[in-house]
Amino acid sequence: MVRWPVSYGILCTSVHSYNTEISIHTSNYTFQKKLNKLPKGPGWTCDIVTSTGDQMDGNDEPLTEQHELWRRDPVECVRELIRNPAFKDYLGYVPENVFADAEGKTRVYDEMWMGDWWWNMQERLPAGAVVAPMILASDKTNLTRFCGDKAAWPIYLTIGNIKKEIHRQPSKHATVLIGYLPISKMSHFKDDEGCQLGRYQLFHNCMRLAGRCSINMVCADRNIRRIFPILVAYIVDHPEQCLIACCKENHCPRCVTRTTLRHHQNGEDPHLFEDQGLRAIHYPFWAYLPHTDIFSCITPDILHQLHKGVFKDHVFDRQFQVMTEFHGLRHFKWGILTHKEMQRVILGVIAGAAARAYQAHMDTTLMRMADALDVFHANKEVFVELGLREHFNIPKIHSMRHYVQSICSLGSADGFNSESPERLHIDYAKDASQMTHWLELQEAIFRHGIYLEWIASQCKCPLNLDTLEADEEGDEVAILDGGSHDLLSSQFIPSGLLASHGYRVTKSCPFLNVSVSRLQTAFGAIDFEYDHFDVFKSVLLLLPKQNHISDLKRLNQLRAHPAIPNRDRRKPASPAHFDVAFVIEDRLRVAQIRVIFKLLSHYGNFSHPLAYIEWFRPLREPEPTTKLYRLAQSTCNQRRFTAVAGHLMPRFGSSKVEASLINGDVLELTNDFYFNPYINFDLFDTIQHLS
Questions:
Q1: In this model, does residue 149 exceed pLDDT 90?
Q2: Alpha-carbon distances of 298 from 24, 284, 338, 445, 647, rounded to whole Å
């Protein structure tokens, strides 16, 4: 209750909070006074940084400009994170080697402490030392349209000791704001080249933060450790990567090495400095950071390099509009919204005329990635020969060459995605002078909230799955760990297929006493002959945990219902959904679910729900080019359902997409499909094992 008025700056006249000192306040003054008594995090300071231009004033002196730098001590922020009791179960202090097999032949790369960098660093540090790998992130962004041309440049920090699943979630506050970098038009420089060089120098002057090599810290498990904070990763888009590496934007910031700089410093090979597009920056901020190789800190940026970089969508607008729906796939009447969603279906869109990021990689998956990139680079010149491109000097494509090396060193790439800092911009991309006090109050409220959440967690209340099943457009859901996990799992009936695999239907049927005629007309189940049946709207599947995909179990929803009228007659009806599933009998087959129903008592005592399904033709060998399975509808009916949900895509080919498909049921109007294994991680992994 307290977080809401503080977040929006609302005058609080009466605020109640369970088991807290804050009770009732009759004015904003007394409310703020109570808030100020709560313990706060590392304090803020404002430094003045002066930059000198190449223009002269009336006294023939160089023009200067003063800039405000708002910052916090990054080492104190590391201390705050590593001692936070909320992260106690999610912290790693030592490097680990994890293998996927009992023989120890297939290594797993997941969290940062599973990578080579941590092992190598641990050997260089004294005995008993604990590494705190600092991960920085920054992204210059414009403020709201009401602020004119103002921009903000927040910089964030987290540590690699915290599991990725936690520090990627903004609500966990495992990534903290540590500063606002100044932004200037550099009007005290003569030309654009001088302005650009001045911006580079200003950035490095501001980032030259004094840090300590090691310091004793109390950790979340109440043990005192000798912590070595070391900068290991910097999450930024390509222009800022070049800013950090002091190179021009048409060059690769990761290909630069300290050897090049050493040769330049010693006057050796003077052309190499220019050949690699380096800029002459006086004392880059990373020059004297202990144990830091800044060029290896440039990590894969899935959002800008793949989702918004290499991937483009504008050619296939109509194909995306008619794409079949799937639970967890965001789908709108004008098509699929984001590049990330489009990549899950793009192979089916272009076939005949997809980039996924594992949570954990293995030697085998990295080998497949390297092979795929080698095939692309070996054949990409065909686009130049056909006149479709002039060249492939594209930094975002070149950057993919470094993915395997980066994953082996620092863990899988999902731990370094710039989506997280962009999400934090919503709260923190504001004017620095107005933000610091507000942020201190936010963090104080959050700390108090952790205590209240801990109290609430003692009464283990399971998730309301009936509400979840009613959410037609919901994303894929992960089951929370901890005490609620067992409570949630107990609500599912074991399927007998795999350990921890189960299903669940709602306690009450939403469609009661449905007649055979309605089953035939509304549901398309033509083989029901007599009687009435209670029909379910959907079934929830509990998918087992797969460590290289996620640490959490997943829920998947299979839907089978006709269009449902809206209670407000002025609004359109909820669309019909008849999902597709894998069915396991003597072999693996694909079927469309038409009805999920309860067998009436006079037919016998059968506790499980049944499903009326329509078969697709059996799976054959995948097409050699796309590796997609081609399917067509069959006439076999009436089998029990089981297993995981599937996704069928229309086989578009080179023909024009008919306008009638946009507003129609694609599964009914089309008879030629591809089975899409890229729709989610669990299905992709299942197909890989079965094939």
A1: no
A2: 50, 15, 25, 34, 36
3-state secondary structure 576-645: CEECEEEEECCCEEEEEEEEEEECCHHHCCCCCCEEEEEEECCCCCCCCCCCCEEECEEEEECCCCCCCE
Note the residue count of the chain.
691
**Alpha carbon distance 233, 134 (integer Å):** 7
Q: What is the structure's pLDDT at 109?
A: 92
Tell me how far apart the alpha carbons of residues 442 and 174 are, in angstroms, rounded to a whole number: 14
Phi, psi of 578 (to 5 degrees): -130, 90
Listed range (298-312, 569-583, 600-614, 667-681) with the worst mean pLDDT = 667-681
Of residues 537, 540, 423, 424, the one with CA closest to residue 479: 540
pLDDT at 278 over 90: no
Q: Let me know: does 363 contact 220? Beta carbons within 8 Å.
A: no
With tokens 């049927």, the residue in question is 509
**Per-residue confidence band for 400, with pLDDT thresholds at 50, 70 and 90:** confident
Residue type, 648: L
* Between 17 and 264, residue with greater pLDDT: 264
Residue 10 has pLDDT above 50, yes or no: no
Cβ atoms of 428 and 138 within 8 Å: the answer is: no
Higher-pLDDT residue of 431 and 235 is: 235
In the block, tokens 């933060």 appear at 209
The answer to whether 240 and 231 are in contact (CB under 8 A) is no
More confident residue, 275 or 128: 128
pLDDT at 128 over 70: yes
Q: Which of 414, 483, 340, 453 is nearest to 165 (CA)?
A: 414
Sequence-distant contacts of 304-307: CB under 8 A, at least 24 apart: 304/237, 304/238, 304/396, 304/418, 305/238, 305/396, 305/399, 305/400, 306/343, 306/355, 307/338, 307/339, 307/340, 307/343, 307/355
- CB 535: neighbour CB atoms within 10 A? 25
Q: Is the distance from CB of 565 to CB of 559 less than 8 angstroms?
A: no
- Read off the tokens for 189: 């420089």
644's tokens: 């995981």
Q: Could you give the CA distance from residue 14 to residue 8 in angstroms, rounded to a whole number?
A: 15
CA 671 to chain centre: 35
List Cα–Cα distances, 691 to 347, 471, 627, in angstroms: 19, 33, 11
Query: Where exactly are the structural domains of the chain?
Result: 38-307+402-428, 460-690
Contact 614, 637 (CB under 8 A): yes
pLDDT of the residue at 444: 78
Q: Please state, in angstroms and rounded to a whole number, the distance separating the CA atoms of residues 211 and 124.
A: 19
* CA distance linking residue 557 with residue 343, whole number of Å: 21
Cite the beta strand spans of 320-391 per DSSP E: 361-362
Answer yes or no: pTM beyond 0.85: no
| pLDDT confidence of residue 83 | 92
Residue carrying the six token digits 């929370």: 480
Is pLDDT of 515 > 50? Answer: yes
